[in-house]
From TrEMBL, chain A:
<keyword id="KW-0067">ATP-binding</keyword>
<dbReference type="InterPro" id="IPR003593">
    <property type="entry name" value="AAA+_ATPase"/>
</dbReference>
<protein>
    <submittedName>
        <fullName>ABC transporter ATP-binding protein</fullName>
    </submittedName>
</protein>
<dbReference type="Pfam" id="PF00005">
    <property type="entry name" value="ABC_tran"/>
</dbReference>
<dbReference type="InterPro" id="IPR051120">
    <property type="entry name" value="ABC_AA/LPS_Transport"/>
</dbReference>
<keyword id="KW-0813">Transport</keyword>
<keyword id="KW-0547">Nucleotide-binding</keyword>
<dbReference type="InterPro" id="IPR003439">
    <property type="entry name" value="ABC_transporter-like_ATP-bd"/>
</dbReference>
<dbReference type="InterPro" id="IPR032823">
    <property type="entry name" value="BCA_ABC_TP_C"/>
</dbReference>
Automatic annotation (TrEMBL), chain B:
<feature type="transmembrane region" description="Helical">
    <location>
        <begin position="253"/>
        <end position="277"/>
    </location>
</feature>
<feature type="transmembrane region" description="Helical">
    <location>
        <begin position="345"/>
        <end position="367"/>
    </location>
</feature>
<dbReference type="GO" id="GO:0015658">
    <property type="term" value="F:branched-chain amino acid transmembrane transporter activity"/>
</dbReference>
<dbReference type="InterPro" id="IPR043428">
    <property type="entry name" value="LivM-like"/>
</dbReference>
<feature type="transmembrane region" description="Helical">
    <location>
        <begin position="148"/>
        <end position="165"/>
    </location>
</feature>
<feature type="transmembrane region" description="Helical">
    <location>
        <begin position="91"/>
        <end position="108"/>
    </location>
</feature>
<feature type="transmembrane region" description="Helical">
    <location>
        <begin position="39"/>
        <end position="56"/>
    </location>
</feature>
<keyword id="KW-1003">Cell membrane</keyword>
<dbReference type="InterPro" id="IPR001851">
    <property type="entry name" value="ABC_transp_permease"/>
</dbReference>
């Protein structure tokens, strides 16, 4: 891995809220086409890491670089335009809009036309919209969302909403995808579907992924490398096999003393 | 990047009896995406134009005002319905448009400000732009405040405006006096006088109807574009919108700017019909009227805003006839209860009833009726 330049480097980041250390000196990097997982008990700082990455939180110290560029001084929408896409733990879709509009919103920063062209819907605006519509159709096909195109997302079953959110992130044509608990609250069948999509995204689309989840089986099956957190501190980092047999991990997370 | 097949929009065909079968993305994204919609919208617009020779001048006047109010309501719907930024200050932007237009088109050297630019293609965009600038200046508040707090601050604008317009007598003529409104003139032809094209009311009716069509189509286009989607994203979930790449501040400012542009244009046109502007008319009631139009018509729909504006405007002749029918209600503002109080109560009541029973407004009622007949005779 040493010769390959990482897509994302996260270096000694610290973040605290009024004395609570949410992230306490975490370091990791994500390689191209790698599926990197972060696990840990509730409150371990997993989602805080995502919020730092997408620009929602600003850490107290540390360095975060994405494709060689510093992330910490940027606004969330600028980070999105750089190609960093994410999904949320609790589905954060635009619930009055249709599946199509949600996916089209993922392409927001790919459009170049402005408000004046939008009002006329001629030339460039129309061309770009039609091209985006075609790209979105590929994602609908990829995620098997054909049946739901024109449904407002608030009416859709939870599992489908999760898939739409994944689709919205994919529509951004990301260069790194952050998935925050993609299978939370799903049954076995939905979990397996989602796992298949996640693997396809990495293997067919070649997009590196950072995955946060509680589902141990899923994480250990899918991930190339795993970072284990406990109370914001890194406990272990390595391949799933190594992490699973790490005594500190067993104590902190898997429970019991081995 | 090569365009996928069908994107050019060149070859697309319609299959008889399958109105929802789209064979190109252009069809899929069209404003009027089924044959039925195209035909009936065409019939409706044609009927609206035909009405200009069928109805009496008095009715045309009411409808012309309704169309202008519809332009204003579409504007409010852009910022409040689509972008979710509650604004009670719409009357303020309408006033700015009204006085910009009146001052530009007014005769120079009179008692009130006037620059003698009566050509409508000069003062109408100017009225919109000046109001839009005011909207853009107010917008930064929306990036700091949201929901109720924003509503209160925009409410403050109305009172601020009311005071300024009452005191600034060179511009407005002062309370109780007022001034002449914008003079609509197109290439030297006065549109507010009887002439070869028809009576004053007929010409103004056609002018307002044509402008409404233009403004409505523009708003529909905006709503289905990246801009309209970004507005809706900010309304539904602002944090998620920012994380997927929508710059919040820029789009909130844009929403206020465009909304105020519509308000300004509506303001410029609104008083052409009566020919007279009084500074007291830009009060909270006017803002509430616009909100009632949006809520009763249908939030975040252009056709709803138009329906709401027509509904409220056509309600007025009915309420104004009340004193003759119900002796308790007086037509005099100094007495209680008077028609104006009844109207205010009625707007409030209608807003409450619609919010409780059909939050989608008249547009929602229409959708319900349509779905009922689509599946008729089965209930679902």
């Amino acid at each position: 891995m040493a010769v390959v330049t990482p897509v994302l480097t996260f270096e000694d980041v610290r973040l605290s809220f009024a004395g609570v250390r949410a992230i306490d000196g975490v370091t990791f990097d994500v390689g191209p086409a790698e599926l990197f997982a972060i696990i840990g008990p509730n409150g371990a700082g997993k989602t805080s890491i995502f919020n730092v990455l997408s620009g929602v939180y600003r850490p107290d110290s540390g360095r975060v670089a994405f494709l060689g560029e510093d992330l910490l001084s940027r606004r969330p929408h600028e980070i999105a335009a750089m190609g960093l896409a994410r999904t949320f733990q609790n589905v954060e879709l635009f619930h009055n809009l249709t599946v199509l509009d949600n996916l089209m919103l993922g392409r927001h920063h790919h459009f170049r036309y402005g408000a004046a062209a939008a009002v006329l819907w001629l030339g460039r605006a129309r061309r770009e919209e039609l091209a985006a519509r075609a790209r979105v159709e590929d994602i609908i096909d990829f995620l098997e969302l054909e049946a739901w195109r024109r449904h407002p997302v608030r009416l859709l079953p939870y599992g489908v909403q999760k898939r739409v959110e994944l689709g919205r992130a994919l529509a951004m044509e990301p260069r790194l995808l952050l998935l925050d608990e993609p299978v939370a609250g799903m049954n076995l069948e939905e979990t397996e579907d989602m796992a298949r999509f996640v693997l396809d995204i990495r293997d067919e689309l070649g997009i590196p992924i950072v995955l946060v989840d509680h589902d141990m089986g899923l994480v250990m099956d899918l991930a190339d490398r795993v970072l284990v957190l406990d109370f914001g501190r890194p406990v272990a980092l390595g391949t799933p096999e190594r992490v699973q047999h790490d005594p500190e991990v067993i104590e902190a997370y898997l429970g019991g003393t081995a | 990047m090569t365009a996928p097949p069908g994107v050019s929009g060149g070859r697309s065909r319609r299959v008889r009896g399958r109105p929802l079968l789209y064979t190109s993305y252009a069809q899929d994204m069209a404003l009027l995406d089924t044959r039925g919609k195209r035909i009936w919208t065409g019939v409706l617009v044609a009927a609206a134009f035909a009405v200009s020779v069928l109805l009496a001048d008095r009715s045309l006047e009411v409808l012309a005002v309704a169309y202008v109010l519809a332009i204003g309501a579409i504007g409010l719907n852009i910022v409040t319905g689509y972008a979710g930024q509650v604004s009670l200050g719409h009357a303020f932007f309408v006033a700015i448009g009204a006085y910009t237009a009146a001052a530009l088109s007014g005769p120079p050297g009179g008692e009130t400000l006037g620059y003698g630019l009566a050509e409508i293609w000069i003062w109408l965009p100017a009225a919109g732009l000046v109001a839009a600038v005011a909207g853009v200046l107010v917008a930064p508040l929306a990036t700091r405040l949201r929901g109720l707090y924003l509503a209160i601050v925009t409410l403050g604008l109305v009172f601020l405006g009311e005071h300024v317009f009452k005191e600034w007598k060179e511009l407005t003529g002062g309370p109780g006096v007022g001034r002449e409104a914008a003079i609509p003139q197109l290439f030297g032809y006065r549109l507010d006088q009887d002439g070869p094209l028809g009576t004053k009311e007929q010409v103004l009716y056609l002018l307002m109807l044509s402008l409404l069509v233009v403004f409505a189509v523009a708003a529909r286009n905006l709503a289905r574009s990246r801009v309209g989607r970004a507005f809706a994203a900010i309304r539904d979930r602002d944090i998620a919108a920012e994380v997927i790449g929508v710059p919040l501040t820029r789009y909130k400012v844009l929403a206020f700017g465009i909304s105020s542009f519509y308000a300004g244009c509506a303001g410029g046109l609104l008083y052409c019909v009566s020919g007279y502007v009084e500074p007291g008319s830009f009060n909270l009631l006017l803002s509430v009227q616009f909100i009632a139009m949006v809520l009763i018509g249908g939030v975040a729909t252009v056709s709803g805003a138009i329906a709401g504006a027509l509904f409220i405007s056509l309600l007025q002749p009915v309420t104004r006839a009340l004193p003759a029918l119900v002796p308790v209600i007086s037509g005099d503002t100094t007495q209680t209860p008077n028609v104006f109080q009844v109207e205010t109560v009625l707007y409030g009541l209608l807003i409450v009833l619609f919010l409780v029973f059909e939050p989608r407004g008249l547009f929602g009622l229409w959708i319900r009726a349509r779905n009922y007949w689509k599946s008729w005779p089965f209930s679902y």
